What we know:
Layout: H1 14-29, H2 58-68, H3 70-73, H4 94-109, H5 122-142, E1 152-154, H6 157-168, H7 197-217, E2 226-230, H8 233-255, H9 268-276, H10 278-290, E3 298-300, E4 309-314, E5 320-329, E6 339-343, E7 349-354, E8 363-369, E9 377-384, E10 413-424, H11 431-436, H12 457-468, H13 476-491, H14 496-508, H15 511-514, E11 515-517, H16 531-542, H17 549-553, H18 559-571, H19 576-586, H20 589-594, H21 607-626, E12 639-642, H22 644-650, E13 662-665, H23 679-684, H24 693-704, H25 729-737, H26 740-754, E14 768-771, E15 774-777, E16 782-783, E17 789-790, H27 793-800, H28 804-820, H29 829-839, H30 846-855
Antiparallel strand pairs: 1-11, 2-10, 3-10, 4-9, 5-8, 5-10, 6-7, 6-9, 12-13, 14-15, 16-17
Helix pairs in contact: 1-13, 4-5, 7-14, 8-10, 12-13, 12-14, 13-14, 18-30, 19-21, 24-26, 25-26, 28-29, 28-30, 29-30
Amino acid sequence: MTGGINRTLKPLPTSLLLGTxxxxxxxxxxxxxxxxxxxxxRVPVAGEGEIEALPPDRQAVTHxxxxxxxxxxxxxxxxxxxxLDQLDPRISDADTAQRWQDILDQLNAGDMPPEEAxxxxxxxxxxxxxxxxxxxxxxxxxxxxxxxxxxxxKLNRREYVNSVYELLGVKVPLQRLPDDPESEGFDTVGRDQxxxxxxxxxxxxxxxxxxxxxxxxxxxxxxxxxxxxxxxSAKVFKDFNQIVDIGDQRLAGKREGKSWQxxxxxxxxxxxxxxxxxxxxxxxxxxxxxxxxxxxxxYLSSLNNGRSARGAIHADPRGQYRFRIxxxxxxxxxxxxxxxxxxxxxNQFAGTLKFNAPASKPEILETHLEPVFxxxxxxxxVWLNDKSFPRQKERAxxxxxxxxxxxxxxxxxxxxxxxxxxxFYENRASQLERIFYPKGRGPRGQAxxxxxxxxxxxxxxxxxxxxxxxxxxxxxxxIQRLVDNFKNARxxxxxxxxxxxxxxxIILSSPSFLYLxxxxxxxxxxxxxxxxxxxxxxxxxxxxxxxxxxxxxANLLDTxxxxxxxxxxxxDPRSKAxxxxxxxxxxxxxxxxxxxxxxxxxxxxxxxxxxAARAExxxxxxxxxxxxxxxxxxxxxxxxxxxxxLALHYGVSTDLQTQGFSxxxxxxxxxxxxxxxxxxxxxxxSNGERSSPVIRGAFVMEKLLHDKPKPxxxxxxxxxxxxDQPLTNRQLVKHHQRQNICASCHVKMDAIGFGLENFxxxxxxRDTERVGDKQVPIDPSSQLPNGKAFNSSNExxxxxxxxxxxxxxxxxxxxxxxxxxxxxGFSDQEEIERILSKLExxxxxxxxxxxxxxxxxxxxxx
Length: 862
């Protein structure tokens, strides 16, 4: 990294760290006492603290459970780890109420008792359902937990990055921040968060670096966009010729009997290795120089583990740049070798591009580059996305100088030139610009900021802290301590910009910035959020960042105004943060990032495909929101969101070129469509080598059927651990089911997983699977416990669509939990049911569901 901000920074002084701790004490004194509400908290009720026994006809319920339920869920057997004989018939807390609700849900769905068990009469089941429904609804009202408990949670990494960007105008890399704690819910849930001294030091360090970068660039006027072209073909050609010349000289010396010293080697071993690998070290570069366009451009090649094209420019980190590349493919290589992968500063993935034209008629491809934190250069390296080597028999031509047809799988792409254009700046000014340029001209038209001196530091810090604390006025003694800290730094000889960045770092490490506090403003006893509090909750729900001026100014307590603001926010580009935040966690994409795909089993898998697969889930979700499509499209759809890499992986014919995604209508007989046939979800349902019907079935149950399987009991052996015979996936799962401890839970999720077996561990379609040395046909047929059978993934999806209301329930609860920052409790279900009833006539459209969550009474209360 060249010329980066990091070089100018000194270690954080002890006075800064100690001063920050003292200042944190001041800000905490101004925060209300907080307590995270938990869904399972017991709630006192009138009388003796318990609700009357449930249901009214206690004897009938007991008889029903004993007759039809205890055989599988009683003292002798607990299928699915569920035991009902010890369930308290009184609903005295939310946990007990939820368990009775689960029983009611099973009865309503007709899933229990199972078909092989003794069956009650229709009248018996109807009577029990009516009794339970009546009493559960009463319990929900009695157990309402709207007790005005204040919710307090820390900004997660995404929210911190976006909040700092709104303040300073610089993007902090996620990987430099402390990890968010693992949670079964979302990173917006406060109860799982923690704050340590190591966190404090990290936030201080990154806060200072971000502040210093922002303040360093603030006085500099914006530049006019320029085009900078890079063409290094002459240099590359010269380098290869030099390699060939030196190699030939050494070979001639060897034939003349010269020693390794005379040939220019460091020792005899180096000489031996060089001549043993002469065809790789010299003959392949020679082959490169013989290629027809080698003097006029750069061939991307698997030569020496990947010949690349690269270029860099001095860049303004406040701006974005367009990157263009001109070239084409050579002869007719496989489609996967027409794709290039771009890497940015620090080898960060920056996208993929696909050439659809030959080198004889080169085309220009374009993408955009984000600013890079801490660097004043934009650097791009262009690699072959598919870097797998040609087969051994294809390598022979490298030594055969008699062939000159140039059909060379080592060099499938040719690059004429690359160019950068920029910088291009956002129209929206950062809060820092608005402080130093109150008249609004800023770096766009005025080079010198106002208040840029020590005399205004009290005013600067007061204004910055007010904006950082989301329009909460900081205590006077807090600001004075910040001013004293600034003055002490100046007395140590620290410059104005760095001294100010130290004080900004303290503000950005303060609880008033790091924590979202829904306080009882002006000692209000009401559980209703104030207008400011609602603006903050809504903004972090839809944007993962602070409110803008329009949101602060709007009367959000007016339902019509609130609805209009939600529509405006969803139309704003910042709503992409909601898609990235909610969808990534709901679909468990963090676990996807940790899956290692076996290069031996899947040699065509590459980084470009991994990034495209992850993005597909978000792009698909984003389209459903943008077009307000019914949520059932997550089960099945007639379209997909694809880029060039995924279209090739799926075998879908398109003329897509860039890493950008487009809505592609699928052929009528396509197995794609919906969430379950997307590569990332299918990879999640694998171990990196082979597919897993169990994991895939569990995902469908939890996310699409709102029926999360119980965790496996302890000491259950891994799939296939009890046999050393080569078996198909279906045979392995069936073998697993023979164990009594596993069978009850697996019968449903395994059946679902079998329907997705035509997709391998990377999501590619297949008709057979390898078992030992053989290819065995895949059987995707199965039958669900309710008797519904299917013979393909498409038939499975049609069955799942019959329960689209379950998907809607899963989404509504997840959206509410994400927005509130806490798990939902039993008493929250009434509001969820109200939302679902309102959306049911229109098939639960996703954008409308997001909006209904935000306008709900539950969302507007602490």
